Amino acid sequence: MIAAMADAEDTDRIAPPGSIGRIEPCPILLVEDDASARDFLAEALRLHGHEVDAVGSCLQAREKLASGLYSSILLDVVLPDTSGIFLYYGIKARWPDLVSRVIFMTGAIERHPHLGVLRQAERPVLLKPIRFSEVLQAIREVSGGISQTRRTRSLTSNEPG
User: Fold this and answer.
1) pLDDT tens, 53-112?
2) Order of strands, edge to edge, in the sheet holding 102-106?
3) Domain boundaries, position 116
4) pTM more than 0.85
5) How is residue 31 annotated by DSSP?
6) Burial class (CB in 10 A: 0-12, 13-18, 19+), 51
7) 86-103 burial, b if ≥16 CB within 10 A, otherwise e?
8) Which has the least CB within 10 A, 9, 43, 54, 89?
9) How many CA atoms lie less than 13 Å away from 149 in the CB half-sphere?
10) Residues 115-144: pLDDT tens digits?
């Protein structure tokens, strides 16, 4: 769950646009199976000027990744159709230029079955409940170089599919 949903009185958790430091608006892929958390986070990011594609499964995420380029990929580790870890490996194999843009989201990490993989990936990991300021900070860290306008993959690229 995104912490902002639980405590609307905490201004750090639902910060108005511009109050947590400036982040250049950018295209973001949000992969979260919890519909209420996904909708809330997507809307909060849009209020900050970001273009957000929000999906609830790895299959939907793969479809979006095949046609778009994202400055950040917020990836839940536990998803209904397969693990977000498997999607991460798919990104690494098919779209290696996007690996550095992955931000994992998960619950209790100490007992997490993929703890070793998460450490080895050396990607930011946001622990649920997540503060919105943490999301913005992670996006700031990984999103350099892609402007607000979505860039699509070239049909002449060497990607399969």
Assistant:
1) 999 999 999 999 998 889 999 999 989 998 999 999 999 999 999 999 999 999 866 666
2) 51-55, 27-31, 72-76, 102-106, 125-127
3) 3-7+23-141
4) no
5) E
6) middle
7) ebbeebeeebeebbebbb
8) 9
9) 1
10) 778 888 889 999 989 999 999 999 999 986
CATH of the domain at 27: 3.40.50.2300
Residue 51 counted as domain residue: yes
Is residue 156 included in any domain, yes or no?
no
Domain count, the chain: 1
Q: How far is CA 131 from the centre of its chain?
A: 14
Give yes or no for a contact between 31 and 84, defined as CB atoms under 8 angstroms apart: yes
In a domain, 30, yes or no: yes
User: How would you write 112-160 as a 3-class SS string?
Assistant: CCCHHHHHHHCCCEEECCECHHHHHHHHHHHCCCCCCCCCCCCCCCCCC
